[in-house]
Design a protein that fits this description.
The chain has about 325 residues and is of the alpha/beta class. The protein contains 11 helices and 12 strands. Strands 1-3-2-4-11-5-12 form a 7-stranded mixed β-sheet, sandwiched between helices. It has a 5-stranded mixed β-sheet with strand order 8-7-9-6-10. β7, α6 and β8 form a beta-alpha-beta unit. α1 crosses α9, α3 runs parallel beside α11 and α6 packs across α11. The longest helix has 22 residues.
Amino acid sequence: MIGRRILLGTAALAPLARPALAQPGGRPVTLVVPFSPGGPTDLIARRLANSLGETLGQVVVVENRAGAGGNIGAELVARSAPDGQTVLFGTSGPLAINRMLYPGQAYDPAKDFAAIAPLGRIPNVLAVNAGVPAGNVQELIALSRRERLSYGSSGNGASSHLAGALFNSMAGTRIEHIPYRGTGPALNDLLAGHIAMVFTDVLTALPHVQGGRVRALGITTLERSPVLPDLPSVAEQGLPGYDASVFFGLVVAAATPAPLRERLRAALSAAVAQPETRGFLESQGMQIAPALTPEALTRLMASETERWARVIQEAGVRLE
């Protein structure tokens, strides 16, 4: 387990905890990240775990359980003891999208989890190779009707794939999807001009945009991103309602008692209120959720499940 479990929020931080939340001497809270160490989700979870350790006044352990698009870690939490000590740092995949992609998924997000609260969303950026003669979304759509274009993704069923499927559906285009084994190979082929465009997270795109190697055409949340405040959203450019962001939220096993869920929600709210924590999250492109409540996350999971199920069915998305 060495290398997979990191102790955060140690006893030295306990004096910073809010007295109403602190339970000194208890066993560690495990924050399960259903993806590999080192990625953006893992990075955000570890910083959040530090802040949760402070507000809870006890140790928080980050445990990576990667595999099956996040399903392995999610199932671990769904089947865990309902004592508030095992928490999933969930994303759009295991909390909403995977239900349609993995027919044999062994848990039901709507039945097997109790929501703590959403954390926020991170947008993707629609970016094209610098040589593509399109300066905005409408010009890209027009170009795609004259020329054969392709977009790369980090793999079948990934948010970068589904963002393109949604774009094709709403724009009436047929831009070809090229799946890669990760974001890096897709970006390499974009820079080399082998593909015309990608949908990738804002921080990954930023250095390439600033270096002039790619051109950002639109942000994929309804609102503009503070990281690229001058970049209009795709929705602003003739595709109203277009939203292909990744949401993040905390959930626990369904039978977890309400007082334990409320303790975690209050700790999350206090953590996000810390200026340093909030500043870090926003620096990662996170758009903090307006309401950190279980009701908000429950509604979000339901609406995202319905929306992406429709996109996946219409586009015939399959994992291969």
